Amino acid sequence: MPTDRAEDEEMQRRILGIALVALTFCAFVSSSAYATVHAAPQSVKIELSLSHRVLRGELMIISGRLSTTPDDFPIALAKIRLQYYRFGETDFTREVVMITSNPGGRFEDRFNTTSLLRIGTWVVNASFPSQLGYESASTVDTFTIVVQPALSLYVSSHSLSLGQRVVFDGLLFACIPCTQDEVTVTFSRPDNTSISIPLHLAPTGGPYPGGYYNGTFTPDVTGSWHVRAVWNGNDVTLPAYSRVEELTVGVRGTGSDTRGLFYVAIIVAVLGIVTLGVVLWRRHSRKDSTGSD
Question: Which residue among 5, 72, 206, 269 has its CA within the 20 to 30 Å range from the CA of 249?
Fold first, then answer.
């Protein structure tokens, strides 16, 4: 009987030991799970890459990457939301939701700038909602949609005499806006020195905005001159350049005067030929009459 009692006590001690180990393990697992669930979420960052000035009608590409900080580990298969606002406004015009790539954590949005309807400065807001283990994050960047206007230049004559003036004008088409703006017309001498004339643009009105300019200029040396008009642009319009016009300036009696003398010479030559023909015809007629007698 004492042997049986000792065995029972030994069995009870083993059972108590096993129960104590089990309780300790459960406590460890519970504390680990609690620490995992209630641990502070990791901070993240969103990086954006884009062109900050893009022409209206061209393709806009905005790419980015979602990663942790500070170890820069990519976060794949996460939701990123892009919202586009015109600068100064609160309502977004375009919204896109994307899933980051696996494993790089990258995303990309492509669209034609005409879909945003208006030119000017735009704001893109990229945001990542809070998820298990990660904090929420957002970043903002800006870009400007611009237009490319056309600038023309016309001259009244490409060949003139020294001291004769040339009349010029032109049109700046599709400038936004084009009030209180100036075009600079530059006349380059044969020795590469130049004279620049700033001219005010007069708005043309109509559905397509534009500006008209005109003026006169008198070259001061002979030779080959080059003329060009330039508009410097503004925040939403790129600079515009006209084609280069060439002027040939000669001394008195050249240029347009030479052209007139050329026509006179032709007339004199024609009259001389006609006169000579008449004289020869008369001589021939006289010879025929003498022969007949």
Answer: 269
Which amino acid is located at 48 in the chain? L
Task: Give residue 77's domain range.
Answer: 44-146
- Per the CB < 8 A criterion, the answer to whether 50 and 141 are in contact is yes
**Domain contains 125:** yes
Tell me: cis bond preceding 198? Omega within 30 of 0 counts: no
- The total number of structural domains in the chain stands at 3
**Is 159 among the domain residues?**
yes
Side-chain half-sphere CA neighbours of 36 within 13 A? 6
**pLDDT at res. 23:** 43
Checking if the pLDDT of 68 tops 50, the result is yes
Q: Is residue 265 predicted with pLDDT exceeding 70?
A: no
d(CA 150, CA 240): 6
Residue 87 to residue 288: CA distance in whole angstroms: 100
Written as six digits, the tokens of 181 are 């703006």
